[in-house]
Amino acid sequence: xxxxxxxxxxxxxxxxxxxxxxxxxxxxxxxxxxxxxxxxxxxxxxxxxxxxxxxxxxxxxxxxxxxxxxxxxxxxxxxxxxxxxxxxxxxxxxxxxxxxxxxxxxxxxxxxxxxxxxxxxxxxxxxxxxxxxxxxxxxxxxxxxxxxxxxxxxxxxxxxxxxxxxxxxxxxxxxxxxxxxxxxxxxxxxxxxxxxxxxxxxxxxxxxxxxxxxxxxxxxxxxxxxxxxxxxxxxxxxxxxx
Length: 242
Known about the structure:
Layout: E1 6-10, H1 14-26, E2 30-34, H2 40-47, E3 51-54, H3 63-71, E4 82-86, H4 91-99, E5 104-107, H5 112-126, H6 135-138, E6 143-146, E7 149-152, E8 157-160, E9 163-164, H7 169-180, E10 186-187, H8 188-196, H9 204-218, E11 224-229, E12 233-238
DNA-binding region: 141-238
Domain OmpR/PhoB-type: 141-238
Keywords: DNA-binding, Phosphoprotein, Transcription, Transcription regulation, Two-component regulatory system
């Protein structure tokens, strides 16, 4: 049976790491266990894991710092999906994690079956298509082009005016979702459900933070914009010039 991919588990609690290892192997993933953060970047380059499970409270470096460092790596490593698996369960901790570009957040103690479900959900959203795919495969790619913006959800690539914009996977997913439904207004709760897939109590602020980051990175454009409807939510608007 073929492996579903490698999962890098960074956790200094042996009991937690062992439970995660057993459930990953049972689900046909290849776990790579690290008790510290100092080897994470090198391991990502050498092993090319499909996903990183990352504790926040590590003995040598915080998971927050590691997440930020991963997101600053060269392509394609900077888009490696990350799930925080941590005892820090306050809304402010979750918000900080999502703002740094984490793809999901699970609080200890956790249900190992839920962890596996979240891993599968994140990988479904972030799996990339090789550049040498056939023409028939290319025809089915989730590609959106509106004005000068092109969003390729299969390649996780966004260009504006032909220039690639460096976005996190979650920012790309949010942008793709909004542009797929032009002029439709979504509440923050809607976007958490559609884009993040799991309920995130007290987490509507992370939507605001991601929209703010998108606007900053994408800049202002004459033909489209992400519109705020105060007290309601957001929409992607195509500007019609007379």
